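Quick one: structure for this chain?
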Amino acid sequence: MIILCIYPLDQCGAADILDVASHHQGALMRRHGNRELVEHAELQPTKAALQRLNGQLEARVRECTAELARANRLLRKKVDENARLRRQLAQENAYL
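Got it. Here's what it folds into:
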């Protein structure tokens, strides 16, 4: 959900802007032509924790992907070996 609140900055002081950011968990502001996000201070530790957990999750995904690739290579080798043995068995049965 996106909620847009417009306040006339020429009539608001810094305390008013910080009150808006506090009540809305953040505010996107434009200062000197650049947009800046002012967030509630309580969000910063949560965002840091989310970034840390996201990094851990990405590392686990990479590990699992590598493990699956190894298992897939091993399975392909087994399938190839099985096919070779079946051909060899068919040849031996034909000889007999």
